[in-house]
Amino acid sequence: MAGAGKSAKSRGAGPPPGLALWLGLAVIVILLDQITKTLVIGSFELGDSRRVTGFFNLVRVHNTGAAFSFLAGASGWQRWFFVGLGLVASGFIIWMIRSHPAQKLFCFAVTMIMGGALGNVIDRLLHGHVVDFLQFRFAILEPLFPGGYFPSFNIADSAITVGAICVILDEILRVRRSK
Prior knowledge:
By secondary structure, the protein is mostly helical. 59% of the residues lie in helices and 10% in strands. It has one domain. The protein has helices spanning 2-10, 19-43, 77-99, 104-127, 155-178; strands at 49-51, 56-63, 130-136. Strands 1-2-3 form a 3-stranded antiparallel β-sheet. Strand 1 and strand 2 (56-63) form a beta hairpin. Helix 3 (77-99) packs antiparallel against helix 4 (104-127) and helix 4 (104-127) packs antiparallel against helix 5. The longest helix has 25 residues, at 19-43.
């Protein structure tokens, strides 16, 4: 591990950002997510859709489940399960950030995941469901999704996806550096 810190220093990376920076970034993700959802709730009725382009619509959909409506048909227990899961995951993410402060890409990645998870936790606590509003349609998706419409999502989901991609990228880069 000492060599990893030394190589980061030799690259001019400087001191690692503090926990406050990462928590601030998570708060920005949460605010952007909640502001956009509030705008959608104020402008759309449930099920409304507005075409923006030939492949993009703004919609208002409520998801009581997780990704791709996983467990949406459950009897209601999933709301509290996902709230608990999001809170436990956030605690674990804060511990990981504190344990690996010099790994900037990793800290960015898990911060995005935490901000997105907490944005959706807030929805579950306030509404009992997550508000989704971004809908994309691509003909190539028709074999997988009815009409080629990818499942609707929101800013929190986007942050989680960016974070997951960055975790994978960070791991690929870490393995390459270790060779």
